[in-house]
Amino acid sequence: MDIEPEKSEAGSERSPVSETHLEEATSSPSGAVRPLTPRTDAQWKSIFYETLQPRALDLQQTRVEKLRNSKMVQKKAEKKEPPDKLSRDWFNDESMTLETRAYLVDKLLPTLVPGVEKLLMAAEKKKALERKESEPLTFDPITFLGEYLMRHNPAYEISAMPNPYVRGLKAVADELKTKVPETTLHKLEQMKTLVKEKRKQREQVEKIKTHVRDMRKEALSMQFKEWTMDLTGQIPVLLIQSALKSFMESVSSELSDDGTGIYARPLESAGSLAPKLNEEQFTEYLDSYIKNFSSDMFQQLLQHLLQCANDARNIIRHDIWRQMFLQLFFNCDHGKVGLLDRQRILSLLEVFFYNCSPHHKKGFLDPKKWPIIELDDIEVAEFWGNMEDEQFSERSSLNIPSGELGLSEESVALKLLLKDILSDMEMTAPDNSEAPEGSAAADQEKAGLEQEASPIGKEGEAVLATALQDEMPAVEPGSGEAAVQEEQDPAATAAAESAAQETVVPAGKDVVPVTTQGSAPVLPVETLEADRNPQPRSSAPASLFNMQSGLQQTQNGELGPGQEPGLEGQGAAAAEQSSAETAAAQEEPGKEREPGSRGQLHRSSEGVPGPSKRPGQKLSVSDLLSMPSGLDSETCEKAPQKIYGKIWSGDLQTADLSFVYTDYGKEIREDWNNESTRFPDLRMNMIEIQARGPPSTISSFDKESLNPPQFVQLMETFVGEETTLSNVKRLVEFVKEGYVQTEKEKIRQMERIHQNSFLVRQQLLLAALFEKWDNECSGFLDMQEVDAVLSTFKEGMEQEALNKAKLQLPIPQWHPSGIVKLSQRDFQTYMELVVSELTGDEDELLDNIVEFLMMAVERTHTERLRGSARRKWLLKIEHAAMTNGGCIKPVYDVLFKVLCRDTDAHGDTKKISAYIALLEYNLVSPERGDVLLHYVACTEDDAPYVLNQSLFMDMEGVSFAAALDDKPIHVPRVQLHGNIHFWNQDRPLEERKGSFLVLPLEDIRRRVFGVLGLDTLQDKNEKTIFVPHEIRFYQGIANTFSIAYHHIRTKESIMQVIITALGWLFTRVSLLQTITTYFMEPGEDRMHDYTLRKVMTADQNEPLEVHLPPGPVVRRRDNIFRDYLFKCIDCSVVVTMFVFEEHRIAVPLRNQMGQAIAVFDVNLGSRQKLPTCEHRDLQKMLRTIQAAVCEILKEDSGEKDPFYVLEAEYVGDWRRGGVLFYRFMLQELQNCIWNLDPFSSFSEIRCFEKPPSLVHTILKCALLILYPQWAGTQEVEDWNCCIEKIDGELIENICYFDPTAAYVEVRPETLYNCLHGAHRKAVWKFRSAPMEYLYNWVNTCLSLIELAKKLQHRQSMATSSTALITPTLSRSLRSSQISANTNYTFAIPLV
Description:
It is built from 49 helices and 25 strands.
């Protein structure tokens, strides 16, 4: 039914709806508008966009079409009848009349001028112009003009098309209007002009960018030819990604940022060598990353890419060597056991090295010195007192910019061209400043460089020499000749070897001398030690001494393909081979030189002239672009570079050596891993246990044996960088023939492997048995339960054996909880002791006991699934501690997530709250108790009330009771207790219901360091009590957190050792560049690869930089040029590498099992070796770090009880690491001084009537440390009195002196002033071992004195320090603080 509209008094219609809205609007306050609801607003917008917007767009399009059509009509008219040019006479931009003229031309003249024209035409038609004065006026011009203007009023006239003159005036008016300032048209014209200028600039910039991009692509295309390509003419993407990654690292170190923003897109990781790029793809791939590079950075990238190309060739060359060494390992492994005798290999290397001629010896490392031997193998006295100087040299390469090394002609020319383009946004000419004149040595080096390059014509040589002259820095005098001599062509070197030596054949054979024309190159002077011929090790077999003649024969004669030493007719064959090689070398110079050898310049063409250049004349762009066509054609058709005469296959066959030979040499019985095994219930546990542990690629270091990766790495380190292929073949043949094993040795080696296999299987069985018993993952077993089951073994007949084994078990005699807990290690020890006490075959007895205990415990399928899931969750907590760079926060996060997941899956969906509180010494309010509980972490909802709170001992609570009794405390219903302390006091009383559980946190020695608390006060369900299997699992969480927490604490102690050691080293060395420390972090399981985390960097010029956790991460496939770091971790041995024009030494830091846990990347710069003094100090630091770290790891793992030698070690936390470093150094020095004779050892010093000031200063400082009261007295100032003090008592006092003791009153500033003139190198040059000992002992004592004072100051200023509760401390604290309390207050995070 329709509603009729009502009528108002005025007669207007008004609907009731409108009236209602009007009343609402009237009743609302004045000016108030009711806002629309979100739903109404959304509906209105949707309707608007659906209906009104299309209509508006249609109207807009119609208007645009109309304007476009009118413009087209206007253009056609103008084309048909162009505007009259006479109208341009009205244009005048004089500023005084500009505005008036614009108004007249726009408003008046378009109508007036045509009117005057019509007037004249009408007057001429009526002959009014010819009228005489006497004739009457028949034509009135004023009236005619007025009528015309009224008739053609622009406001009312509608004309089809104005005449050409009017159109011209219109154009003149529009142009004049744009000249009138402060008008719309003027502003619009300015905007149009600005837009045109910007468009022009943008087009110019785009033109420049296009030009730069084309030039860069051309440079990258030339760069492609510098790389070693495979058979298909392609390059692996992984090499290019590694080059970009390393360039980003170098730029980030220069720019002091992370370097992530230097590329146009994020870096990718290929992961393997399979993806490859051709020349076009190579150019496009690199161009996609460097679009935003400036010209300077692009130049740096080109230089870096050239370095990487050389390093890639070097990697390929080393891969060929490694293949030879791997095959050599298989040839020497006669018993096929997967291991070689390390000592025998070292003996063979010694015989080979010390019987080589100085020329053949070049490149090999001395096998009696580090890094071939271990630092632990060096005697302490020799380590600290050997004062002989060793040879050290800088890199034997041309001292030219690294980017020019290996630069072809076209690359040099293009580089000169690109230098004219300074940036992507502007193009300016560089300064024409001439290069500074170099020294005579630099000129010689430039000449040597030109001689090294292939003959490319005089003009091409001028281009190359000019490019090098512009870029080459000044070099030291005399370095040019040495560089040229050391980098001569290997073909000429081989010819010289043939000419200089005669082939030696075995006794009884005819000697055929071999001579070749040509003079031998001048060899660098070798050290005296290289000319010596020391006897080989006594441990070498007798057959080694009989092979010296064969070795001499092998090194003097060049072996042909397939020829072996000792064959008939060797002399004649060697002569023919040598002559053939010499002829080939003369015909093809440089062919024998393997690509990738350092210092070699790459040749792209021969005899091709380059652009000529007069002195002081700059090459133009056209000159450089118009290079001879022969160069372009030969460059484009350049054949792939060959490695030892062969094209690279495109794969590095030994790159994954550690993955392929993971368990090679480890015989593990896997009879359990099948369906018919004797231990079916343990099978899954054993599979899971095998998947854990350290990464499979890491090999433990063993002084007695070598596995394939370790053997290959040892041989590669011995060979060095500058060894030729012929010398490598000689070494392989020598080791192959010299490594022999007797049958007894083979049997002994097999027995050793079988024994190791038995131990591994035994540990695996016992670990699986332990996990089956500990199904809820608590981390321990009750010894009473184990004994109750074992007492029934063989019906109790072996009870006596069990009692004997129990007596030998190292378990605590008393514990506050009264429970004897057996950890997994204790359980294994207990079972081994039981087996040893029983009679019979140990292997069979162990299997019987394991089978008996396995059958004694039955688990349902649900229980097994629950235990497996919980064990995986606990492993995540440990993994978080090992993979976050020492950061504890991720451990807290994972722990609370595990608690939530377990409650959801196995805890009836309880809602729990949890916290972690650590015990600390109460230094804030000592009157409230000796220790306190500091809440360091909790669940998210409890953070506002609990986090960073402190619970004192006078606040009665079960948290302290659980810590002191070292046992869990479970309160099922907290509302019934009555004495509960709630952190959240705002919580209503009726809501304070639930259960509460407190678990003590124990370290490896069962010392409590904190508590883990859980409650269910936020759970609204009726059943909130913790059941037994949940409590056992929460105990496992507490145990796992303890392991994770102490792992981080151990890492902090190790870092403190390293920081102290690096600070000590860089005060003594000056030529060392940097030392970077990386920690190894394992993968998810044993088969996943590990990563390296960068933790600190020490530089000679900058202070030590410690990267805050978590630091940068390095992965194996991210940068193949950093692969030497992973080889060091894989093999746990020292690795040397030459990369990015720098000598690197990767030194592993091993744990107590010989596995590498960290690596030091030592950068020597251009020097192949440091001076002897600094080299020894580097070795001392590395050796002392290893000793201190092993001490920390043994103590933290429970293998060894803490042994404190110095008082400063009682600090008891991570700061003890710095004291440990100096303690081991002090002990070694004290041992050296103890072996000195007070008279014979100091005889040379006693002969001085007036000693050198250096000797007197050192002796004076040593006496002042022991007797500080003698400062300024005659006892130390007079030389004769000082000499009299050198006796047995002084040596004894030095050896028993503790610099950190409280009674020491030495003032370090006094001794530092005294030692101011005693420099480290001056002491070394004095060549006195006693003075060296005393000097180092004085400096070590001073460092310890300062460190002890710092520790005391920090301890006094600290607000808290970590505390540990032992059973003895527990009894004392309970008797003094808690025994008087009858009730306990529950301190729980109640929210």
